[in-house]
Amino acid sequence: MRLPNQTAHAVFHAIVENQLAQADPVTVPTLARLKAEGLTRHEAIHAIASVLAGHMHDLMASSRAAQPPPTTEAYYQGLRDLSADTWRQGSCDTASGTFPHAAAGWTRAAAVPSRARR
Question: CA 60, CA 90: separation in Å to the nearest integer?
Fold first, then answer.
């Protein structure tokens, strides 16, 4: 089993935590909603980070394809569309139509320490 990059993992955690600390108007309610839907705080951070990873991928891909970059509103819409169920299923709909959290190791299984999965 290939584990996610630990540095990238920590960076995405830090970005989401900073958005929460700055009372981001969409990230904060998204965290609360995901927790109300049954995710732990850590799982909800991973779910939010999955949308962020997709948004960052779209930003980089747009520069290579000479397309206009996605807006912050596209990221926010991804957060609004995110649910505990779609994240658990690995089918969160992002602006690009990709499922970056599954590919990047941001799935529910990756959020649960290996001891707990045994």
Answer: 22
